[in-house]
Specification:
Bound molecules: S-adenosyl-L-homocysteine
Strand order of the largest sheet: 2-3-4-1-5-7-6
Pfam families: Hen1_L (PF12623), Methyltransf_12 (PF08242)
Family: Belongs to the methyltransferase superfamily. HEN1 family.
CATH superfamily of the largest domain: Vaccinia Virus protein VP39
Number of strands: 14
Protein name: Small RNA 2'-O-methyltransferase
Catalytic activity: small RNA 3'-end nucleotide + S-adenosyl-L-methionine = small RNA 3'-end 2'-O-methylnucleotide + S-adenosyl-L-homocysteine + H(+)
Distance between the termini: 62 Å
CATH class of the largest domain: Alpha Beta
Organism: Kitasatospora terrestris
CATH topology of the largest domain: Rossmann fold
Length: 518
Amino acid sequence: MDWAILGRVFISISTTGTAERPATDLGFLLHKHPAKVQRFSTAHGVAHVFYPEATDTACTAALLLEVDPLALVRQGRGKGRGGSPDLALAQYVNDRPYAASSLLAVALRTVYRSAMKGVCEQRPGLAEHPLPLRIELPAVPVGGAEGGATAMVGRLFEPLGWSVDAAAVPLDSAFPAWGDSRYAKVSLTGELRLADALQQLYVLLPVLDGAKHYWVAPDEVDKLLAAGQGWLADHPELDLITRRYLSRRWSLTRLAMERLALARLAESDDREAEELDNAVDDVPETETGSAVEAVQAETATVAVAEKPQPLAVQRREAILAALAETGAARVLDLGCGQGELVGALLKDARVTEVLGLDVSSRALSAAARKLRLDRMSERQASRVRLVQGALTYTDARLKGYDAAVLSEVIEHLDLPRLPALEFAVFGSARPTAVVVTTPNVEYNVRWETLPAGHVRHSDHRFEWTRAEFTGWAEQVAGKYGYTVTVRPVGPLDAEVGAPTQLALFRLDNPASEGSATR
Ligand code: SAH
């Protein structure tokens, strides 16, 4: 009876009640009607929710996930989100070894999203109350258990107030000599708020499994801390949970622990966490390198995250500030790389639409993964598109936007190709505003680790002085009818200026442009 091998994973949630407080209130809490059998398509297959029993005194909601390995592949092709079929996401899919528990965790979050947040509009107040709960999991993968599979279930759930009954599932009941499988039959009983129970399952099922099916990106720390709010920080197995949830990525584990400690200190001061996030998400000067490696390299310096912020963060903030000045709502991120700026733009409510374009499908796959495009709400997903394209060719998809950003992109082109980009962006796409950033080569002498005469990144074809950049910007502005201002970004040195230079171009006559091109 190996559910996972059959491609099915199963969880049931039961409660008891009385005529005054009927057990069927569970249906309101889960936002799923007890009289219906419902199907949900999740990222990894179809989930069915049904109620084997639904009376005043006893109610059980069952969730059965039929894992569809092909869904992983289809999902990789962008699920029909406009514009993304050209994403080469095969690599994204291959990053996901199959693991039932984390699929179930994701399915729980998809199907019971509101319940997990503790939201219940139809019965206000209900979600705040602990309920008598019984959760049955006939086959939980327990991988590389520390101290024995069934014991680990106890260590994880008992401190949270659950009574745990866990037994190893034999490999084949007809052949006891074969021993136990890596699955345990688990039942949990306790008096908890349903939202807490769901969040604990969301975190602890993958912890038991010891393998996450998706790439463990830095944002997993955010998810862990969000789902762990109110119970994780004081859990006696905090170390084990954090380590296994983050698939033994030590840098992320340390980061999570630091953030938990900070959150305790600051009573979960959101701003502080946000700053740490920024510092860590960033990939200063390594650009298209692996973000995870960058996190590992950087975590040590992030510990207490005092100023100064990494240059990449300062640059992103300067770009966002320049865009805010223009009031842009529809924004192009040209040469978007791994999508850090796209992510920051999506957090800004004024921005209604972001199109990220890059020539590199690897960078776009990484961006899709980091942005969690596959798990974004429809509303959020409708604001963003990632497309592959080359900036040295005109592209009709880029017309009609309020602003375009070229962040650390121009220096990746061979100088003779630059006029082609200028025409494609300023001449053809013609957004109302353009923000361009590029290194200031004069500042390179201040980088202690940079050998004299070297550019900052092996793929930089050129780096300009302040005079060269200003000269270029003014020439482009004049040629295409824009007005430009140039400003420094990063620590300003009296002699050599700031490490990054930013040009903000604004179209001289947007009104007449609009009527001419639309
Ligand atoms: N804008 C990001 C990434 C900068 S790295 C940031 O600020 O961090 C430069 C990016 O430009 C790379 O992702 C590279 O693939 C992309 N790029 C370089 N030449 C390009 C071209 N001709 N067309 C489109 N993208 C290009």
